[in-house]
Sequence to fold (263 residues):
Amino acid sequence: MTSSSLAVACGDSAFLERAHQLAHELSLPCLECIDPRRVSDVPVLLWLDEAGLALQMTGRKVPGPVRAEFVSGKAGYRREHGGGAGQLVAKAVGLKRASEPLHVLDATAGLGQDAYVLAGLGCELTLLERSPVIHALLADGLTRGAGDEHAAPLVARMRLEAGNSIDWIQTRPGPLADVIYLDPMFPHRDKSALVKKEMALFRPIVGDDDDAPDLLAAALDKARYRVVVKRPRKAPTIDGPPPTTQLEGKSSRYDIYALKALP
Ligand SMILES: C[S@@+](CC[C@H](N)C(=O)[O-])C[C@H]1O[C@@H](n2cnc3c(N)ncnc32)[C@H](O)[C@@H]1O
Fold:
């Protein structure tokens, strides 16, 4: 994304100092305190208000903010009423078979939603995110989560790192984790409102993750038991060796590359 298509702004002067700091760190312009509905020359804002850091489209009648959220909303509901170890992602990662808590390396962390589900199921997670903007959103969500009594125990199992996972994985001796989990961007046509809103904001910032085959190859080299790739249900597999098995859900599919039996 070019610097003119994203800018930092805030809803109250109380956040001005943090807005300037963030703009400096991310080399973005800072529009200071403004009303996003009145902005016409920047399509998306990195927006700071009392609810935290978010991506917010500008103009009238645009969708609400998108943020990394671990306390309320969908994440909060899922934490309280989640589907447990019967969920497809739990099966894909191998939680039912494992006798000990698994360490999962989520090498495409995004807004941390999948990682949070796995943390809720007892996994220890290392999260890697290469987009500095998405990393900032995720770091903010984790900080807010750490301050909430219900989310804090889960968030404590999620350790966030910045950088390109391909380099991160290749430059460290393996095995790096029991399971390496990948969910790269894919140009799919999911019609659900939430996915559409998040993807419309995400894609110009992170791109299409065209290097997913290199990431898969690196992961296969350094995972202890398996690599799990999340794909849209009808999407082709990532270029490379074929998965050992696939689990299909309503809209997603998990391609499982088994390396060794889980303990
Ligand atoms: C579809 S999103 C992941 C969503 C995530 N599973 C969730 O539940 O919120 C893909 C993310 O992976 C990141 N990503 C893709 N390839 C990466 C790489 N090689 N290293 C680090 N991050 C990567 C992108 O920047 C993007 O934020």
About this structure: Residues 107-108, 110-114, 128-131, 134, 164-166, 183-185, 206, 209, 215 surround S-adenosylmethionine (CB under 6 Å).
